[in-house]
């Protein structure tokens, strides 16, 4: 006789393409090292809560050699800033981040060349970090504020522009060959569940998620994205059920369309894998949407491992699980007879 509560584990792996190349994906940015040794970035970025402005500030700070708090993201109105395209397809860090990095490098090239002339050293020896600039292998050093002021007095404004375009091959309409994406994000998740064989309820006890993000510009942000994707995937797997009838919704509110609450969320254990993308100046790829992909399959596999039934439509409601268990019992009884 089957125990009332059965536990199981399931695993699912995924891949996800970013930076579309079936159609051209591109982004542009401007960067300037300004008075006071601060940095200014202008790009047509769309911030909808995904944290891209923080990531861009971190990228610009590293590339310009200043502190993140000294970076200002300027007007993102596309009538007055370079095109950066939409917030979607897990492309913003990859496309806009790389364009910002290239713009900052362009600005730094002008600054470094002028400071090298003043110091009488090779440009390749110039380094900058946290608001200071120096020549490696010497005691030559000054603040970024002094360096920018010196450049401007010599008639040089350290401003730069950058553009990043994803290259690839569109899909052949006949044989399907081609490379529709420039980079791929790989991931794997393991779910542990407990299934109540009397009520059909499923409790997710834990999720272990490992994702290759290329390079984690903001590790805490990456962890947050993975955790958010797992929560979405849990809702998709077990609760969220949007019903349509001939194009009309039958789910008129959240009383029927159930969302996970904090009480439904298990322990989520994240592992960030950094296998840098060779086509990205930053080495970064992305994680926004890929974090969601393996969650539901891992939970479905865990349910199968626990009670031996396959749920083939989402969400795996208690009713579906009980029906599957009853059907299996009938088949088993028929075989025994």
Helix content: 25-40%
Q: Report the CATH superfamily of the largest domain.
A: Aldehyde oxidase/xanthine dehydrogenase, molybdopterin binding domain
> Which regions contain 5 or more consecutive residues with pLDDT less than 50?
none
Number of strands: 13
- Principal-axis shape: elongated
Mean pLDDT level: 92
Broad CATH class of the largest domain? Alpha Beta
In terms of structural class, how would the helical and strand content be classed?
alpha+beta
Radius of gyration: 26 Å
The topology string of helices and strands comes to EEEHEHEEEHEEEHEEEHH
Strand content is 25-35%
Strand order of the largest sheet: 1-9-10-13
Summed up, the helix count is 6
Largest sheet: 4 strands, mixed
Count of distinct structural domains: 2
Task: Say what the CATH topology of the largest domain is.
Answer: Aldehyde Oxidoreductase, domain 4
What is the level-2 CATH architecture name of the largest domain?
2-Layer Sandwich
Give a written overview of the molecule:
The chain is α+β, with helices and mostly antiparallel strands and 337 residues long. The protein has two domains: 5-17 and 181-336, Aldehyde oxidase/xanthine dehydrogenase, molybdopterin binding domain (Aldehyde Oxidoreductase, domain 4); 20-165, Aldehyde Oxidoreductase, domain 4 (2-Layer Sandwich). The chain has six helices and 13 strands. It has a four-stranded mixed β-sheet with strand order 1-9-10-13. Helix 1 runs parallel beside helix 2 (92-119) and helix 4 crosses helix 5. It is elongated and about 90 Å long. The mean pLDDT is 92.
């Amino acid at each position: 006789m089957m125990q009332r509560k059965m536990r199981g584990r399931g695993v699912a792996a995924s891949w996800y393409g970013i930076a579309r190349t079936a159609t051209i994906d591109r982004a542009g940015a401007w960067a300037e090292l300004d008075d006071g040794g601060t940095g200014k970035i202008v790009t047509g970025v769309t911030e909808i809560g995904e944290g891209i402005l923080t990531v861009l500030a971190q990228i610009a700070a590293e590339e310009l050699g200043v502190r993140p708090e000294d970076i200002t993201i300027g007007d993102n109105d596309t009538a007055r800033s370079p095109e950066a395209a939409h917030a979607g397809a897990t492309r913003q860090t990859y496309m806009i981040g790389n364009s910002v990095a290239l713009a900052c490098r362009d600005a730094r090239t002008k600054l470094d060349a002028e400071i090298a002339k003043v110091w009488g050293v090779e440009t390749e020896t110039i380094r900058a970090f946290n608001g200071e600039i120096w020549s490696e292998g010497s005691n030559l050093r000054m603040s970024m504020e002094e360096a920018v002021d010196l450049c401007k007095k010599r008639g040089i404004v350290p401003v730069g522009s950058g553009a990043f375009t994803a290259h690839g091959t569109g899909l052949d309409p006949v044989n399907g060959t081609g490379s529709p994406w420039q980079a791929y994000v790989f991931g794997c998740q393991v779910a542990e569940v407990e299934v109540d064989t009397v009520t059909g309820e499923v409790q997710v006890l834990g999720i272990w998620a490992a994702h290759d993000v290329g390079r984690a510009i903001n590790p805490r942000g990456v962890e947050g994205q993975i955790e958010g994707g797992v929560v979405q995937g849990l809702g998709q797997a077990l609760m969220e059920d949007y019903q349509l009838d001939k194009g009309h919704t039958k789910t008129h509110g959240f009383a029927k369309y159930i969302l996970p609450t904090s009480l439904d969320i298990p322990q989520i254990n994240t592992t960030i894998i950094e296998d840098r993308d060779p086509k990205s100046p930053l080495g970064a790829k992305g994680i926004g949407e890929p974090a969601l992909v393996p969650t539901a399959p891992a939970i479905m596999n865990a349910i199968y491992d626990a009670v031996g039934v396959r749920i083939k439509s989402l969400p795996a409601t208690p009713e579906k699980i009980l029906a599957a268990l009853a059907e299996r019992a009938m088949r088993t009884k028929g075989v025994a007879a």
